[in-house]
Design a protein that fits this description.
This protein has 470 residues and is mainly alpha-helical. It has a three-stranded mixed β-sheet. Helix 1 packs across helix 4 and helix 14 crosses helix 17. The protein is globular and about 65 Å long. 38% of the residues are buried.
């Protein structure tokens, strides 16, 4: 939402308060409450739209309110507030013809959407349109592309699974209208993005089978299709032994490394160290995390990772949930300040022992995960190089670690990493692929009363094991 839009909503909120005869301070919370109370007070009226015309606001503000109400409605849903709302039934018929889906699939997707069990899926199936009008990135950094462009190939695979694109090219592939913000895109019109089939042997995944089948072999199909969305289906055996949050991290880091040419080893180290350390921290420890300076590149990379989590959610939903949604939630694998601190330390040349805070178990996992990521990228002709930025503030961050009693830094200058062939640490961490699903999803440590921040993407609320956190 732009500053102009927020200002317009504020003016509308003030007008709403005047209308219902209440005097409150002009703050954001009260503005939202004013609009919500006004709408709920007229919710049962059959001619709600006429009530808006009685407000002393401009036509532009009135149109903005109507647009806001429309954004909360499902594609086929109607409301007396918007009696002339456009319908999307024609696209639903097109989806049925292309993918062989039926109303059972549409209805199932709708029910999941209402419960916040999926992301993007219902919008794609019912309206052929998705949007994301917010982002957090540095548009002055030419080395890092916009989030929307980085994840477009993955979204194209998701469209193919949902809409039924064929690999043999016997018919024109379906397409989806995207309203995704990125530098240089004013969002004046939607971009038509074509679905790209996933590369899987045998027949293409059928949506009804992926979503409804209870056959044991379909579990493997869901898993392999999920990996194929990120073009890493060849890693099925290597990743299956990991816990879900680590599988998700590997998927994202491999994908980001292949899409972003300027991602370096120091960035990978920061991502991995953060993912491994965050689950060992209490809320107080995370709150007390110190960052020597704010680096715009670190903010961009952190936001890029969180945006990728929404793609993981969409991929998991599209493939029939090969993983529990709760294990892919951002509070399972990411904390912004912790990542920022690890980023500064990594680029200052801190050792892996320092990044992992001397925890030998985490160091072993770090080596194993890093080996998977770098070896996969090498096989795909992407050599991740060491490019330490080494700002003064990052060096101070590393020095502060020593002041707190950390060990000496063993890295001066550029970091070199060669994937070990027979590393006893790596081989010691190798888990048996034969572990059961229940073992891989065993209960894990979670700090009591850990708080989570409300993020822009729509996360499934019911999955949070601590719904009282805010």
């Amino acid at each position: 939402m732009t500053l102009c839009q927020r200002t317009n909503y504020r003016s509308f909120g003030v007008a709403a308060w005047i209308r219902i005869g209440k005097k409150k301070k002009k703050c954001t919370q009260q503005t939202v409450l004013a609009v919500a109370n006004y709408i709920s007070g007229h919710l049962c009226l059959s001619e709600g739209l006429k009530e808006i015309t009685k407000l002393p606001v401009s036509e532009a503000d009135r149109a903005l309110l109507e647009k806001g109400i429309d954004s909360y409605l499902l594609p086929e849903q109607q409301t007396p507030w918007l009696p002339y709302r456009k319908k999307h039934s024609s696209y639903g018929a097109q989806v049925e013809l292309r993918s062989g889906s039926n109303q059972d699939i549409i209805q199932f997707a709708k029910e999941q959407h209402i419960r916040a069990d999926n992301f993007m899926v219902f919008n794609i199936l019912s309206a052929g349109e998705v949007s994301c009008s917010n982002t957090l990135e540095d548009d002055q950094d030419p080395d890092l592309p916009g989030h929307a462009l980085v994840y477009r190939p993955a979204r194209q695979h998701i469209y193919a699974v949902l809409l039924g694109a064929k690999q043999d090219g016997s018919e024109s592939p379906p397409s989806v209208k995207e309203w995704f913000v990125y530098p240089g895109n004013p969002l004046q019109h939607a971009e038509l993005v074509t679905a790209v089939p996933v590369d899987l042997p045998g027949r293409r995944p059928d949506l009804k089978i992926l979503w409804f089948s209870e056959e044991p072999e379909i579990k493997n199909l869901r898993y392999s299709t999920f990996l194929a969305l990120f073009d890493i289906q060849d890693l099925s055996d290597e990743l299956c032994a990991l816990e879900t949050h680590l599988i998700g991290t590997c998927c994202l880091l491999i994908y980001i490394a292949l899409q972003v040419n300027n991602l370096c080893l120091e960035d990978i180290d920061a991502y991995l160290a953060q993912t491994l350390c965050v689950r060992t921290k209490s809320p107080d420890q995370l709150a007390c995390t110190q960052v020597a300076c704010v680096d715009s590149r670190a903010v961009h990379l952190g936001s890029l990772f969180v945006r990728g989590l929404t793609i993981l959610i969409a991929a998991n939903s599209s493939c029939g949930f090969p993983f529990r949604m709760a294990d892919l939630m951002p509070w399972e694998m990411f904390d912004g300040k912790l990542f920022h601190s690890k980023y500064l330390q990594s680029h200052a040349g801190c050792s892996e022992g320092e990044l992992l805070e001397g925890n030998m178990s985490l160091i072993i996992q770090f080596h194993y995960l890093k080996t998977i990521i770098t070896n996969t990228c090498i096989r795909k002709r992407r050599n991740i190089e060491s490019k330490p930025r080494g700002p003064l503030a990052a060096k101070q961050a590393c020095s502060s670690y020593h002041a707190r009693g950390g060990g000496p830094s063993s890295h001066k200058g550029q970091r070199q990493y060669f994937p070990p062939q027979n590393d006893p640490c790596t081989s010691g961490f190798q888990l048996s692929p034969s572990r059961t699903q229940e073992q891989r999803h065993r209960p894990r440590y979670r700090a009591q009363n850990r708080r989570r921040i409300q993020l822009a993407p729509r996360w499934p609320q019911y999955q949070n094991p601590h719904p009282g956190w805010s």
